[in-house]
Give the backbone structure.
Amino acid sequence: MDLNQLLSAHQRAVMETGPSRGRRADRKQAADVAHYADRIQRMRDHYASDDTGEIESWESEGGSVPEPALILPPGVTMTLRPEYRVGPYVYSDLALALSELERQAR
């Protein structure tokens, strides 16, 4: 059983305790609840004690972001500009690129 299944079984066992059905049934039900609680705690302790090692940096699901290869000297700045290509023409303004696309479509 994984942790979610154990939690579900424990919840069902707790909800089934309800009104008394006799001492023997009550003892068995209490033992089931305690058993599931113990297994849940052991599973949580097991995962909590896993040694993950020292984490040097955080990585998302997409992988790490590479360090910038180019370090600019003080006084030099870099800007990135969008480029829109329509056929043989290159535009930095989207409106102009769309106009050219319309012209070519006629």
About this structure: Strands lie at 84-86, 89-91. The radius of gyration is 32 Å. The mean pLDDT is 79. Helices lie at 3-17, 23-48, 94-105.
